[in-house]
Design brief:
The chain is an alpha/beta fold and 601 residues long. The chain is built from 19 helices and 19 strands. The strands form four sheets. A seven-stranded mixed β-sheet has the order 7-6-5-2-17-18-19.
Length: 601
C-alpha cells in the first residue's frame, strides 16, 4: 500500500433544477442489490422474526454494553484525532471546527457501495465564488441499517467493508486517523448486533495508524481487492441478474450461515466469523450502541438506539441525565427513525424523541436520521430534521400525494415529479421480476389451487375463490401503513385489488375458452396468472403511493440504484452547524457528485 498521493478537491456545483436522467446504471459485481420480493429477502425476514422474538422476551443482547460517560468518549475521540488541546468539548480540544460525515442505509449493491465510498472520502471545493473547501469528516457516522438484508458480519464485509476498502486503499495511506461512530437500525438488530459490534465497538488492538507493513491491513486489502468491471463483465453481470442467479446465490449463502449456526449450537462448536470489521483509516471508539459526545460549547452529539421497538430504560437514564444536567441545551441527534416521515408524524421517531425527554417543537435539536432511502429537510420549530438515507440501499421516492398546507419540506431528493415517474413503472417492473419471483410463484400457486378446486365441483371452486379473495384483501389491508387513520380508504383499495386477484384465474379461463379454446388448459391459465397476478399486486402498490396510504413498499420493487447521497456537517466553536448534502442521481454513471442542498442551523 503506497503513501497517499496529493489530489485536489473535487469541484462541487449545485445540482440545479435539471430533470433527472431516464436511464440508470446498475451494478455489475457481486454481491448485487437485494431483490426485496425474492428468496434472499425472505430469509432476512425470517431472521427479523427471530430477532423480534428475542426482543419481546426477557433476554436483551445489549447486556454487554457499558456506554462511556461523555467525558470518557470525548477523551477517546480526541486521542484518535491527536487533539493536543484541553477542554470540555471536541471543538476546544481540536482548537477548530469539527467536520462530520453522516451516511445511512448503506451496504447493499457492491458497486453502489463503492460509489458512495468515493463520494464520502472526497474533499470538495464549493463553486459559489467563496473558494471554500469541504474536507473529509473528522468523524464518520453510520446512521443505521449498515447492511442488507441483515447486518451479519459476513454481509457487512461483503456489502460494505470490502467495497469501501477498495476505494480507501486506492487513496493510499491515510494522512491521519479518523473516528468511526455508528447507531444500529432494525436490520442491524436482525443479527442481534453481532455484526454491528464487530464493526463499531472499540478495538484496543488497533491503536496505531494504518501502516504499509501492517499484516492485518494487508489481509483486509487482499480480501477486498478487485479490479473495476470491464464492459464485458458488466454485460455478463446483467445476464447473471436476468437469470436470477444472484437471488439463488444469495439465498444459498444465507441458508449456509443459518445451518452453520444451528449446527454449532447443537454440537457446541463456534461459528467462524471475522473477529473485527474495520475501515482503512478509521478507528471505532464506542462501547455501546448509543453514545453522547460533547461537541462544542452548548452543543452535544447524541447517538440513540431504539432496538426493534423503543429505547430501553438504560438509554432513558443515560440521555436524561445529560439533559437535566444543563451541560448543553442544543444537540445534534443521530437517530435510526424519522420523527416526521412523508410529512406525517412517524411513531417510532416520535417515541425516540419523547423517551429522551425532548420535543422538536421546543428543544433545539438537529435531528439527523436515515431509514427512508431519500433526502428530505424540514424545519420543526427551533429544530431541524434531516433525512439522509441515501447511503447505498434502493431509493425510496419522496411523497407524491399532495402535502397539507405548510407541511412541505424545504428540500427533497428525488423530487415529487421524479418520484411519480419512478412509481409509475412499479407494475411493469414487478411483472418483469426486477424485485424477485416470489409474487409470480405465489400467484401461480393460488391460481392452481383455485382451478384444482373447481375440478371438485363449482361449490368447492367458488368457496376456494372466496377464501383467496378474503385472504388477499386482508393482507393487502394489513400492508397499508395508514389503515388506522384512513381505514375506509385502505379498505376500499384492499377490496378493489384482493378480489380482483382471486377472480383473475376464472376470468382468464373464460377468455381462453371463448377466444382460444385450443390452448384453454389449466397449465396455460396458471402461466398467465404468474404474470397477471404480479401486475395486479403492482397496481395495488402504485395505488398506495398515489393516494398517500403507503409510500415505501412500491419502490422496493424497483431496487433503484440512483439518488445516493451523504451529509457533510461542520460544527463551529460558537455552536453553529452548517450542512451540505452531496449526491448523484445516476450513482454509477459518469459525472461528478453535485450539491443537493445546503443548510445552516
Amino acid at each position: 500500500m503506497t503513501k497517499k498521493t496529493a489530489a485536489g478537491p473535487l469541484p462541487l456545483f449545485p445540482r440545479g433544477d435539471e430533470p433527472a436522467p431516464i436511464a440508470f446504471t446498475r451494478g455489475a459485481r457481486e454481491p448485487y442489490g437485494i431483490r426485496w420480493f425474492g428468496s434472499t429477502a425472505l430469509l432476512g425476514h425470517v431472521r427479523h422474526l427471530s430477532a423480534e422474538s428475542l426482543a419481546s422476551g426477557e433476554r436483551d443482547t445489549r447486556d454487554w454494553m457499558r456506554p462511556q460517560p461523555p467525558a470518557d468518549l470525548l477523551r477517546e475521540v480526541a486521542r484518535v484525532l491527536e487533539a493536543p488541546e484541553t477542554g470540555d468539548t471536541l471543538v476546544e480540544r481540536l482548537g477548530r471546527e469539527v467536520w462530520i460525515d453522516f451516511v445511512a442505509d448503506t451496504g447493499d449493491d457492491s458497486d453502489v457501495s463503492s460509489a458512495v465510498a468515493r463520494m464520502v472520502s472526497a474533499e470538495y471545493a464549493l463553486q459559489d465564488g467563496s473558494g471554500r473547501v469541504l474536507p473529509r469528516g473528522d468523524l464518520l457516522i453510520f446512521g443505521g441499517d449498515t447492511a442488507y438484508p441483515l447486518s451479519s458480519a459476513s454481509e457487512i464485509a461483503r456489502r460494505l467493508m470490502n467495497p469501501w476498502n477498495r476505494v480507501l486503499r486506492r487513496k493510499g495511506l491515510p494522512d491521519r486517523a479518523r473516528v468511526l461512530l455508528g447507531i444500529p437500525g432494525n436490520h442491524d438488530w436482525y443479527d442481534g448486533l453481532d455484526g454491528f459490534a464487530r464493526m463499531f465497538r472499540q478495538n484496543p488492538m488497533r491503536e496505531r495508524a494504518d501502516r504499509s507493513d501492517d499484516a492485518e491491513l494487508q489481509e483486509q486489502i487482499r480480501q477486498a481487492e478487485s479490479e473495476d468491471p470491464e464492459e464485458s463483465s458488466r454485460a455478463i453481470g446483467r445476464i447473471y441478474q436476468q437469470l436470477h442467479l444472484d437471488e439463488l446465490a444469495g439465498s444459498i449463502g444465507l441458508a449456509e450461515q443459518a445451518m452453520a449456526e444451528a449446527l454449532a449450537m447443537l454440537t457446541g462448536r463456534k461459528v467462524k466469523r471475522a473477529s473485527r470489521l474495520w475501515l482503512i483509516g478509521y478507528r471505532a471508539v464506542q462501547e455501546a450502541s448509543y453514545w453522547l459526545l460533547p461537541l462544542a460549547p452548548n452543543l452535544d452529539l447524541w447517538g440513540v438506539d431504539r432496538q426493534l421497538r423503543t429505547l430501553d430504560f438504560r438509554q432513558r437514564l443515560f440521555f436524561n441525565d445529560r439533559r437535566t444536567s444543563g451541560a448543553a441545551s442544543r444537540r445534534i441527534m443521530v437517530s435510526p427513525d424519522p420523527a416526521i416521515a412523508m410529512g406525517e408524524p412517524n411513531r417510532p421517531g416520535e417515541e425516540i424523541v419523547a423517551a429522551c425527554g425532548l420535543s422538536l417543537k421546543s428543544d433545539p435539536t438537529c435531528y439527523v436520521t436515515g431509514d427512508s432511502h431519500h433526502y428530505e429537510r424540514r424545519a420543526v420549530g427551533p429544530s431541524m430534521q434531516v433525512i439522509a438515507g441515501g447511503g447505498g440501499a434502493f431509493v425510496h421516492g419522496t411523497r407524491v400525494h399532495p402535502y397539507r398546507r405548510g407541511k412541505e419540506p424545504a428540500c427533497a431528493f428525488p423530487d415529487a415529479k421524479t418520484s411519480r415517474l419512478l412509481a409509475a413503472s412499479v407494475p411493469l417492473q414487478l411483472v418483469l421480476g426486477t424485485a424477485g419471483l416470489l409474487p409470480h410463484l405465489l400467484c401461480a400457486c393460488l391460481a392452481a389451487a383455485q382451478l384444482a378446486a373447481f375440478r371438485g365441483g363449482p361449490w368447492l371452486g367458488w368457496l376456494t375463490t372466496g377464501l383467496v379473495a378474503a385472504a388477499s384483501a386482508f393482507f393487502m389491508f394489513q400492508a397499508v401503513v395508514e389503515r388506522r387513520h384512513r381505514a375506509k380508504a385502505a379498505l376500499a383499495v384492499a377490496l378493489a385489488h384482493g378480489p380482483a386477484l382471486a377472480l383473475a384465474p376464472i376470468g382468464v379461463a373464460w377468455l381462453l375458452a371463448r377466444f382460444m379454446p385450443a390452448v384453454a388448459f389449466n397449465f396455460v391459465n396458471v402461466a398467465i396468472m404468474a404474470l397477471l397476478g404480479p401486475l395486479i399486486i403492482g397496481h395495488f402498490l402504485l395505488t398506495l403511493v398515489v393516494t398517500g396510504l403507503e409510500h415505501h413498499q412500491a419502490y422496493a420493487v424497483l431496487g433503484h440504484p440512483g439518488f445516493k447521497h451523504f451529509v457533510r456537517l461542520c460544527a463551529h466553536p460558537d455552536g453553529r452547524v452548517e450542512g451540505w448534502t452531496i449526491g448523484k442521481e445516476d450513482t454509477l454513471g459518469k459525472g461528478l457528485p453535485r450539491l443537493i442542498d445546503r443548510f445552516e442551523w
